[in-house]
Amino acid sequence: MASSIHDLARHLNISIGTVSRALNGRADVNADTRQRVLDAAKELNYSPNQSGRSLRQGATHSIAFMLQPHPGDQQYGEPFFIPFLIGLQGRLAESGLDLTVVMGAPGDYQQERLRRVVETRRADAVLLAWTRREDERIDYLTEVGFPFATLGRSRTGGKAYPSLDLDFEKAGADAVDRLVARGHRRIAAIRPSLNLNFGYLFLDGYRKALKRHGIEVDPALIADGFINEAGGYQVTPRVMLAKNKPTAIIFNNDAMALGGCKALAEMGIRPGQDIAVTVIVDTPLCRYFSPALTAFRPALEPMGRRLAEMLLASLPAFAGPEGPRIIREVWPLELIARDSD
Amino acid sequence: MASSIHDLARHLNISIGTVSRALNGRADVNADTRQRVLDAAKELNYSPNQSGRSLRQGATHSIAFMLQPHPGDQQYGEPFFIPFLIGLQGRLAESGLDLTVVMGAPGDYQQERLRRVVETRRADAVLLAWTRREDERIDYLTEVGFPFATLGRSRTGGKAYPSLDLDFEKAGADAVDRLVARGHRRIAAIRPSLNLNFGYLFLDGYRKALKRHGIEVDPALIADGFINEAGGYQVTPRVMLAKNKPTAIIFNNDAMALGGCKALAEMGIRPGQDIAVTVIVDTPLCRYFSPALTAFRPALEPMGRRLAEMLLASLPAFAGPEGPRIIREVWPLELIARDSD
DNA sequence: CGTTTTTCCGTAAACGTTTACGAGAACACA
DNA sequence: TGTGTTCTCGTAAACGTTTACGGAAAAACG
Hints:
The structure is a homodimer. Chain A is an alpha/beta fold. Helices cover about 40% and strands about 15% of the residues of chain A. Chain A has helices at about 5-10, 15-25, 30-45, 50-55, 80-95, 110-120, 135-145, 170-180, 195-210, 230-240, 255-265, 285-290, 300-315, and strands spanning about 60-65, 100-105, 125-130, 150, 165, 185-190, 220-225, 250, 275-280, 295, 330, 335. In chain A, the strands form 2 sheets. A 6-stranded parallel sheet of chain A has the order 2-1-3-4-5-11, sandwiched between helices. In chain A, β9 (about 275-280), α12 and β10 (about 295) form a beta-alpha-beta unit. In chain A, α1 packs across α3 (about 30-45), α8 packs parallel to α9 (about 195-210) and α10 crosses α11. Chain A is elongated. Chain A starts with a helix and ends in a 5-residue tail after the last strand. The first copy, chain A, binds a DNA duplex through α2 and α4.
C-alpha cells in the first residue's frame, strides 16, 4: 500500500538517490532513467511521504490559518471566512501547499495556540485575522522570526509583513457621504469594542467625512459594543438617547447591526423609514434582513487568493527570481444599496 | 531557536533516549532525571518537532476535514460548518490532534484531493461531509483501509465506519405533521438534486407522514433543484403550477428556501400569509429573513465534538481499553417555530 | 557473600526523504 | 595517448524522533 522511494529503487534496480533526483526533476539524471522512474512511480502508485520530506527539508508545506471565532452567537459563526478560505486554499494548493485551519475556542486570545503551531513547526507560515490595533501575535511572530501575513492591518509598528486589508476608512467616509447627500446631519456610528483595528479605521473615515461636510462630531452619537448581536442590541439604545437624536446609524459589523435593529424595533423605530441604517461589512444576513440592509461588500474569495499570493511572495522558497517581497494592499468595499437607508 | 532533543541531552549530559523516555512519561526513567528533563525542556523552550515524530511513529497527529463548498452563491458559503468545526477542533485538540481543513474548489468532487491526502499520509484519518446516497469516497477509503468518519450517512453498503447524521426523516415527518395540524393538505417538498443522502431521508419522512395522515402523495408537489438559491428560485414555480396548488412548501435547504421565497414574492405570494413555508436545516438566514422562517435546527457545535469523539473511539491509538468501537448516531433536529407557516 | 531481580540508562537502528560529494564512464580535444 | 570536461549515478549522511535491546549498577533475597 505505502510504497516508498526504496520500493521504486529496488523495482528499477537503481539507487534511491537517483530515484529522488528523477522525481524532483534535477538536471543530473539521464532522460531515460527519469522516464523509467516516473513510469514506475505511476505503476507502484507512489507518492512521497510528507513527514519524510518535511523532516529532511525543514518545511511542512502547509500554511496555518488562525481562525478565531468571536464570542457571542455560538449557533452560527463567521460566514465571512468560508469564501475567503476557498480563495486562500485554491491559491495555496497551486503551489503545493496545504491549508491547516487552526480553530481556537471562541474568545480565547489564541496566543497559546499560535505558540504551539510555531514551536512544533507544524506550518511554514501562519495567517492572522482580526488584527488588533496593538497585536501581540504580530509582536511574537516577528520576534521569533516566523513568517506570517495578516488579513487586516495593525498599528504594531515598524514591522514588515504582508497584509491585506479592507478600506474601512473610505467605507466609513462613503457611508457618511451617502447619508449626508440624502439629507442626514445627525449620524451615529457603532463599532466593536476590543481594539480591533478596523473599528478605528472606520471611525477615522467617519469623523473626517463629517468634518468635510462641516458637521460637528457628536461624541454622544458614537458608541462601542461587543462584536455580536447582543452587543449591538445593548449599545444601540445609548445613541438613540442622545440629546440630538440621530436620524441615521452606521454599524461597523453585521451582527451588531442585526442586534441594533432588534433594539430599534422594540423602540418602535423602523429602519429604512424612521431611521437610516448602513452597515460596513456586508454578509448574506444583510441581504435577507427586512428591510434589506444597505451595506459595503468585500470581495472575499479574490481576497483569499491574493493574500495567499502575497504570503508566497514573501517566502524565499516561493518568491520569484527577484527575491521575496513584502506586499501590503488595501482593497475597496463595494456599496450595495438596499432598503434600509 | 529550535531546540531539539539533542540539545536537551547535551545540556543535561544524558542520552537522547533517556530524554525522550522522560518526555513521553515512560516508566523506566528515574523520577529525579525525569524532573530534570522536564525542567530543562521548559528552560530551553523545547517542543517536539512534529515531522520527526510523525516520521518515526507513522502518524501525523492530525485529522483532515474535507470541506466541500457547493457550487452556487460564491459570495458567501456554508455558515453551517463553522460551529461544527469549532466543536470538532475543540475535541481533537484535547487529544493532541490538529484539524486540517482541506477545502476543495466548489463543485469539484474531491475524489482527487482525497487521494492526495491519503497517499501522502498527511492525516491519520479523514472526515467527510455531504455524504451521497452512493458515495465513491467511502468506497475508496474502505478499499484502501484508511480510517474515516462521516457527517451524514450513506447507503454505500456493508461498511463499518463511524457516522453522525441528523434525523432528516423525522424532521420531514414532523414538518408535515405540523402543517397538517394547521390545516394544510397540499404540501409541497423541495429538495436538492444530486444524490445527497439527506434529500432522500427527508423525502421518506415526508411521504410516510402524508400517508399516515391519509393524504395521497402528489408527484407534482415534489421537486428537485440545485442546492443553492438559484436552484430554489428556479424550481419553486414548478410546484406552484401544479393542478392542485400547494398551500405549504417544505424546503430541504435554507438557500433553496430563500430562492424559493424570492420566486414566490415575484408571483405575489406571501410566505406566512398566502402560503406556509418550512425549512429543514436552520441557519441564521432563516431567523433574519422576513418573514422569519420556521425551521429545524441542528446542534452544530455538540455534533462536531461528538463526531470527533466517535472518530477517536474508532482509532486503535485513541480508543479506550476495550478497544476500538464503531459508533453511529442520528441526532434530532429541533423545531424553531417562527412566522413563515 | 553469592545469586537473582529490579531499576535505570546508553546505544543504535529505524521512519522516508533530500542532497553534498565523489567516482566511473564517455566524450572531446590536442 | 594524455588530459580535461561532461554526464550520470551511487554512497552516505542528515533531519528529529521513538524504541528494542542489552548492560551496568543497585537492590533484594537466600
